[in-house]
Amino acid sequence: MTKTIRLTMAQALTRFLSRQMTAIDGTTVPIFGGVWAIFGHGNVAGLGEALYGERETLPTFRAHNEQAMAHAAIAYAKANFRRRFMAATSSIGPGALNMVTAAAVAHVNRLPVLLLPGDVFANRIPDPVLQQAEDFSDGTVTVNDCFKPVSRYFDRITRPEQIVPALNRAMQVLTDPADCGPVTLALCQDVQAEAYDYPESFFDERLWAPRRVRPDRDELAAAVAALKTARKPLIVAGGGVLYSGACAALAGFVEATGIPICETQGGKSSLPDDHRLNMAAIGVTGTSAANRLAEEADVVLAVGTRLQDFTTGSWALFKGEGKTLIGLNVQPFDAGKHQALPLVADAKEGLMELTDALQGWAASAAWTDGAVRGKAEWQAEAGKATAPANAALPSDAQVIGAVQRAMGFDVIALHAAGGLPGEMHKLWQAGTPGSYHAEYGFSTMGYEIAGALGAKMARPDKEVVVMIGDGSYLMLNSEIATSVMLGLKLTVVLLDNRGFGCINRLQMATGGANFNNLLKDARHETLPDIDFAAHAASLGAIAQKVSSISELETALAAAKANERTTVIVIDTDPLISTEAGGHWWDVAVPEVSSRPQVVAARKEYEEKRKAQHVGD
């Protein structure tokens, strides 16, 4: 006879989560690092009580904003290379909807997070309850249906026993390297409190190990044949290299074959920046060294990347005649993009098998040596961009240079939106895997501080440096207070260019008038004069404003010794970006305009589009 234990649905959920394990470097640890929670009437009585009962084995963390706490959970998973992750719970209504943006972040970036929004009563007797949005034509719809398009798996728990198959399916998705992404379990608030006799075996400890798919023999043979004919081969390393733990395998493959590599935003830090064959960033935000090779390459091995438009220069970057694309990816959807030869496999396994199959073959010395010379030329250009200068307002690049000099190469440098991703991708020199943390799949303003908090929870031994603009800071800064409360020190460098400088530059580049991006160009009666240092200090941070690059370096050196989160503010020039490197990006310009600048921009746009090639 099956032994059972009577628990509420919420108690069963939290007990199950606390029993899921993984192994990191031979040590068994809980796969859930904890649960972020902001309680409301939709989850405080049911799930809140259950979390209290498991608080020693499944820690609960309180945040100040639901979107931010989910960002922290997502960053925790990213910093753990998807080996560990977290859950986040909110009440119904606005609390739940605040997490939808974060769900999209996880969905786009293929990162695991378990979202547990409260939901309406399954029995519908009290309807409409506080914060319930009624659909006049469908009684089953709630605001949580908004999670469906941005969840890898969605379920609504309307009976207590449904949590058993739902949690098993959730774990399969959260740990699957191909289908990994956000799982949403909408928890009807009455059902959270309802009891059921659950099988005791449901709560047995379970160890989850990453699945490593090996290549199909025919696909491997086709990829090897293509590489052996290559005169100008190139590797594009994406985030899948890091998630697979394939950095050493990648290094071995590069050194055995002499093929130069370049890195996407997600793949940056796959190899150290100082590796002789690492050309660093590729694409719209790429280095001249990487993009020159990409334009000439006849065989491109794309490893663990979804090949988004910033990587491919809106599919105008790869210009090599008769070029062949090989998609080494655990997800078939990505492996076959743009008529690529698919090589569906775990990145580590795939690279190791390619290395074995290509023994004795190497790229031509002329191609490799040319890549090395191109890298040296790029490094000289990058050094000029990041060097300190005496300008009244420094550029983003000069601030990046100061942070790099002061903080070194082994810190975790984190950013997400605005002009910084472009400059950081090209100019930041990553030293170790995971030392570069970019949310540039969804590029979410407001991810930065909350994401840094999650990264620090995952890697408490590392200094975490946040690079953020004033626009992102104003959107979401509340987790500075959470970092202070939890004793998790961050260093935040706030670049104040008084508006949305990146989009203002894009507006100008596409012929537009300066309008509604910089504060001075937006409708106003009085220009804001925001004291960011005072604001950060009010949240509990150590804060100061500096007036020069030299002062910034001094403040960063002092911040290393600080015991709590430090925010350093510096004014920057909104109009300057690094001219070296980069590539065209497809941003549609109006066909018709009364402004000659737009007409000229459209003509240039049509000319650039001729380099694009159509693919799947």
Description of the structure:
This protein has 616 residues and is of the alpha/beta class. The protein folds into three domains: 4-207, Rossmann fold, CATH 3.40.50; 217-377, TPP-binding domain (Rossmann fold, 3-Layer(aba) Sandwich), CATH 3.40.50.1220; 387-571, Rossmann fold. Helices cover 38% and strands 18% of the residues. The chain has 24 helices and 23 strands. Strands 5-4-6-7-9-8 form a six-stranded parallel β-sheet, sandwiched between helices. The chain has a six-stranded parallel β-sheet with strand order 14-13-12-15-16-17, sandwiched between helices. α8 (217-228) packs across α14, α16 (396-407) packs across α17 (420-427) and α16 (396-407) runs parallel beside α23.
Strand percent estimate: 15-25%
Name of the CATH first level of the largest domain? Alpha Beta
| Annotated CATH topology of the largest domain | Rossmann fold
- Helix amount: 25-40%
Largest sheet: 6 strands, parallel
Shape: globular
Number of helices: 24
Estimate the mean pLDDT confidence. 96
Strand line-up in the sheet with most strands: 5-4-6-7-9-8
Number of domains: 3
Indicate the topology.
Blueprint: E1 4-8, H1 9-18, E2 20-24, E3 27-30, E4 32-37, H2 44-53, E5 60-62, H3 66-79, E6 85-90, H4 94-97, H5 100-109, E7 113-119, E8 153-157, H6 163-175, E9 182-188, H7 189-192, E10 195-199, E11 206-207, H8 217-228, E12 233-237, H9 239-244, H10 247-257, E13 261-263, E14 278-281, H11 288-296, E15 299-303, H12 309-312, E16 324-329, H13 332-335, E17 341-344, H14 347-357, H15 365-386, H16 396-407, E18 412-415, H17 420-427, E19 436-438, H18 447-458, E20 464-469, H19 470-475, H20 479-486, E21 491-496, H21 501-509, H22 532-538, E22 542-546, H23 549-559, E23 566-571, H24 596-609
Parallel strand pairs: 2-11, 4-5, 4-6, 6-7, 7-9, 8-9, 12-13, 12-15, 13-14, 15-16, 16-17, 18-19, 18-20, 20-21, 21-23, 22-23
Antiparallel strand pairs: 1-10, 2-3
Helix pairs in contact: 1-2, 3-5, 3-18, 8-14, 10-14, 11-15, 16-17, 16-23
Organism: Manganibacter manganicus
InterPro entries: DHS-like_NAD/FAD-binding_dom (IPR029035), Myo_inos_IolD (IPR030817), THDP-binding (IPR029061), Thiamin_PyroP_enz_cen_dom (IPR012000), Thiamin_PyroP_enz_TPP-bd_dom (IPR012001), TPP-bd_CS (IPR000399), TPP_enz (IPR045229), TPP_enzyme_TPP-bd (IPR011766)
Keywords: Hydrolase, Thiamine pyrophosphate
